[in-house]
Specification:
The structure is a homodimer of 279-residue chains.
Chain A lengths: L6 E5 L3 H10 L5 E5 L3 H9 L5 E3 L2 H4 L5 E4 L3 H11 L8 E4 L5 H10 L5 E7 L20 E5 L6 H12 L5 E4 L2 H23 L12 H6 L7 H10 L1 H23 L3 H17 L1
Parallel strand pairs in A: 1-2, 1-4, 2-3, 4-5, 5-6, 7-8
Antiparallel strand pairs in A: 6-7
Helix pairs in contact in A: 4-5, 7-10
């Protein structure tokens, strides 16, 4: 079946789910939106974010070729456990969580063999949360990550790729769940840890000396602590590995500073500049 | 003498010096600009950045009530050692370096008692460097720090305050050089250290997972390594103290993560959010 004829259900019309629904509207056979909140469904109706809107899983899941679960990480498994009976054979189920290894293996275990689950993570977003901030062009020009396991088929990977390409992504990238989580601990969790720990050294008089470098370094210290404690805990193993690796670089820098080894300090800074330019 | 009649010489027409000259134009008796580069003087002439422009210190320093030395930290002492003979008694000399303790004590030692040196640090700036990026409104709404020692007089502090108020600063703040350097190691040097060390963990595949938090956390990794190695070395004592304090917070966080003490992790993140909101 061509992706343009797909019946797609988006579960959870928040910032990401709402944007996916909007981005697929008119490009696939039908977009169905499912949410537990009538207010959210009403908002979605006004903005024409989906062809059809539903409050109950049993009313829409049986008609879906693809189900995109855009819930918080800890809700994905629970939702599928509770509603797997409504999925018809050969349905492709995807999530969009920013953490993959645990979720992918847990979900693949609970779904029947005729239903395929593929972990995905769109590298897009914006400040804030909720359906009000959803927009059609959210994924334009961004990376979209797929994290297949040995249980996934080329059929599912191809279908997911064709589908997210409809959102205007720049590139679809495939990683193992393990690779994904290890990299995310560096690119996303470390900046949040560093921002928070830097911020916690604040003294009142510091405010007179705050410039752009401090403001940028601590921007994400306005953190959603419930979500982030969950993300840190779920990715504990890789985050601790990344922290160890940071400690090595930290101790190397500190030793050079103590010994006044300016040549080595300069090399450290030059390397950072080189990587940043490359990025 | 009223500050509006002051004869001011700005030494070094770079990003900061050029902006100070521009900001004082028409508000004091006369603004003189001094630089070693004829190209820079020509640029300043075209933009009318000063009333008079000079290539040689002996031609302008003897006519100055106030001399603002806007050179790199390591050049301030050398410039004043070489040219102190041209300064007339009761001249007020100021620098604008982002590092204070060493420079202030060194310069106060080499100047004759009838010439007063006051350390200052404008908390403004922008990306890039050089006269091309100088602009009149650079200091509008920013803090301006003065770091007097026991050798400074109320006369000099009052005069400097009146003068920088002409630049449209939000508030003039007085700190000891020691306090200043301790705070700057936290607000400015730590963000640069963290950005560089975070960046140095980069692996090629990381680029697919880079989002806003990583980009902001590493913005200043495009570092001027010569300047920053100098700043780190000059402020070594306080930077090492600040690194020790960061290590304590780091170890506390790491231990909570290892022990899965989610309540403590949440407290750490909440404190960071509270400080950030306060800022």
């Amino acid at each position: 079946m061509n992706v343009s004829e797909c019946q797609v259900t988006v579960v959870g019309l928040g910032l990401i789910g709402g944007s996916i629904a909007l981005g697929l509207m008119g490009k696939v056979g039908k977009v169905r939106g499912l949410d537990v909140s009538e207010d959210i469904l009403e908002h979605a109706r006004k903005r024409r974010m989906a062809d059809e809107l539903y409050l109950h899983p049993e009313d829409c899941l049986p008609h879906s070729d693809v189900v995109i679960v855009a819930l918080y990480p800890r809700q994905v498994e629970a939702f599928l456990l509770q509603n797997r009976e409504y999925l018809r054979p050969k349905t492709l189920v995807m999530d969009v969580s920013s953490i993959k290894e645990r979720i992918v293996h847990a979900v693949q275990k609970i779904l029947p063999p005729e239903i395929e689950f593929l972990g995905t993570h769109p590298m897009a977003g914006r400040e804030g949360r909720g359906i009000e901030r959803a927009r059609e062009e959210m994924f334009l020009g961004s990376y979209y990550l797929l994290t297949p396991t040995e249980k996934n088929t080329p059929w599912a990977i191809k279908k997911a790729t064709s589908l997210v390409e409809l959102l205007g992504v720049l590139k679809v990238v495939t990683l193992t769940p393990k690779e994904h989580d290890a990299l995310v601990s560096y690119t996303s969790q470390m900046p949040h840890v560093l921002a928070s720990l830097l911020m916690n050294g604040f003294k009142d008089k510091s405010k007179y000396l705050v410039g752009g470098s401090f403001k940028d370094a601590t921007r994400v210290a306005t953190i959603n602590e419930d979500l982030w404690v969950e993300l840190f805990m779920q990715n504990k193993k890789y985050l601790l590995m990344e922290m160890d690796s940071f400690e090595d670089r930290w101790n190397d820098f500190k030793e050079a500073l103590q010994k006044e080894d300016t040549a080595h300090l300069r090399r450290i800074l030059q390397q950072a500049k080189m990587f940043k330019d490359k990025l």
